[in-house]
Amino acid sequence: MSERSRQIVEAAVCLVEEGGTEALTMRALAERLGIRAPSLYKHFPDKAAVEAEVIALAMRDLARALEAAKDELEALAGAYRAYALAHPHLYRLMSAGPLPRERLPDGLEERAALPVVRAMGGERVAARAVWAFAHGMVMLELDGRFPPGADLDGAWRAGVAAFSRT
Amino acid sequence: MSERSRQIVEAAVCLVEEGGTEALTMRALAERLGIRAPSLYKHFPDKAAVEAEVIALAMRDLARALEAAKDELEALAGAYRAYALAHPHLYRLMSAGPLPRERLPDGLEERAALPVVRAMGGERVAARAVWAFAHGMVMLELDGRFPPGADLDGAWRAGVAAFSRT
DNA sequence: GTCTATACCCGGATAGAC
DNA sequence: GTCTATCCGGGTATAGAC
After folding, report:
1. Which domains are present in chain A?
2. For B136, which of A97, A135, A145 is closest by C-beta distance?
3. What distance in Å separates the CA atoms of residue A59 and residue A131, rounded to the nearest whole number?
4. Predicted confidence (pLDDT) per residue in B83-141, tens digit
5. Strand D nucleotides where any atom sits below 7 Å of a protein CB
6. Is there a contact between A132 and B159 if contact means CB atoms under 8 Å apart?
């Protein structure tokens, strides 16, 4: 990938972080770079290609955050939640809706999932349940679905405790 | 609400069920009813009002399905998942993204949540964790996020088992 | 309550000159 | 590699006649 392409992806990340998925349009992206929208198509075939690069970048960041955490459920859950709250729009783009697997680097998805599998002693089925819990907590929190004033820390603790006994 | 308004909401539900959230447009809705889009504004002030009625209807259906299930976590989880898989687009519209609470009937959200709270012996914090698990499982399944061939029944069992020991 | 006509916004993407 | 000009499609919503 050329240097210019990297700059484009970087700008795209900023747009998503600041304004959510919908803020990433070819026009807005071009404007941020000081060029015109059609010029982007000299670097990427279409918008989906740009989006895929943003997703890949976010997944790498999340994977790094999880790998840096201690190999216990509680620490992993904390790191997961922290990433999602720090980058809510990136988390959404990366984790909600269909994933363009063909456009992503091989093994990246697996890499992001690995820390949880290890924390669950290699039990992939249980790891999936834990992942679903964490994803559900994050999405409900980001979407403002819990009642105002709900004890979310408590809910996280309850979930982590439940799965720790597994 | 007039009879005509009810017909409009019913048509809107069909559009969502068949084509997802994006398929619900004022033009498509009008066409399905054999009228022109501007005529809809004689019955509803804007699109959000129609959408809110669809959401309310879906929440009532889900609440009924949960109330009909046995008062145990396993049965509730089964009913929850069954509803979501039977009406994936309605589930999404109702459960993902911000909720227009001002436009919904009082107490409806609470009603839908109650069965889980009861199954958890009144522990609202634990009930929220269970809800997050179920929501996460459903969304990851609907979004095709699990690896192909993953044992989802097993993941559901693992989650239900973990929270049952609470 | 329905229509036609229309305003207004937005999006992705292409052709062809430079 | 950037530009201008443009196409094409889509959306919500309003005005005013009937």
Report:
1. 3-164 (1.10.357.10)
2. A135
3. 15
4. 999 999 999 999 999 999 999 999 999 999 999 999 999 999 999 999 999 999 999 99
5. 1-5, 10-16
6. yes
